[in-house]
Design goal:
- The complex is a heterodimer of chains A (113) and B (115).
- Chain A is an all-beta fold and 113 residues long.
- In chain A, 0% of the residues lie in helices and 54% in strands.
- In chain B, strands 2, 4, 5, 6, 9, 10 and 11 form a seven-stranded mixed β-sheet that branches. A four-stranded antiparallel β-sheet of chain B has the order 1-3-8-7, with no helix packed on it.
- The chains are: A mainly beta (113), B mainly beta (115).
- At the A-B interface, strand 4, strand 5 and strand 10 of A face strand 5, strand 9 and strand 10 of B.
Chain lengths: 113, 115
């Protein structure tokens, strides 16, 4: 099935550093979502974006919905050890067969204390 | 946020047996539930979408006779892996959505190991 391209695939950073990851697609999406998945758990929603150009923050997290509706980025400021996990972007399209999410390939984040 | 539970959290079975996984929305009514499969170090791949009271819609390449989905109530959907084989070993995750809202809430996942 279709997947969104996320980059980088993985990051290994020092605690306190800022993190930036992005997601790109050849298709247009109506909604962009960012999830975090801990090992052995389901994804947890971090931020939802509904309009092109929208910039939304949730604590230390900031995400933007690209103007072209084909991309989005997520920034994490002042990283802490509990930020470790896999971050997935997801795009939502409205289709006649029903709405569904398409997930990105994931960015694996490791934080060194 | 809304709570979605899955049971069991993990299961080990012999090849050829069937396994049923339950997905429940605990504090809301979910007219639509989704089933995903995730292989190690890979992303979530949608298997099927189920609406309460109607047949599930399967994604291309997913065998509907092998992965039976039942969404009999607004709070429960089940996925049955029939005649499971080792290649069916994976992490199965469900999600649920309100009928008029866009946010999907995910369950904690069920890890299936077929020996």
């Amino acid at each position: 099935g279709q997947q969104l391209n996320q980059s980088p695939q993985s990051m290994f950073i020092q605690e306190g550093e800022d993190v930036s990851m992005n997601c790109t697609s050849s298709s247009i999406f109506n909604t962009w979502l960012w999830y975090k998945q801990d090992p052995g758990e389901g994804p947890v929603l971090l931020i939802a974006l509904y309009k092109a150009g929208e910039l939304t923050s949730n604590g230390r997290l900031t995400a933007q919905f690209g103007i072209t509706r084909k991309d989005s980025f997520l920034n994490i400021s002042a990283s802490i050890p509990s930020d470790v996990g896999i971050y997935f972007c997801a795009g939502r399209q409205k289709k006649s067969s029903g709405d569904k999410l398409t997930f990105g390939t994931g960015t694996r984040l490791a934080v060194r204390p | 946020g809304a709570v979605v539970s899955q049971h069991p959290s993990w299961v080990i079975c012999k090849s050829g047996t069937s396994v049923k996984i339950e997905c429940r929305s605990l504090d809301f009514q979910a007219t639509t539930m989704f089933w995903y499969r995730q292989f190690p170090k890979q992303s979530l791949m949608l298997m099927a979408t189920s609406n309460e009271g109607s047949k599930a819609t399967y994604e291309q390449g997913v065998e509907k006779d092998k992965f039976l989905i039942n969404h009999a109530s607004l709070t429960l959907s089940t996925l049955t892996v029939t005649s499971a084989h080792p290649e069916d070993s994976s992490f199965y995750i469900c999600s649920a959505r309100f009928s008029l809202q866009e946010t999907q809430y995910f369950g904690p996942g069920t890890r299936l190991l077929v020996l």
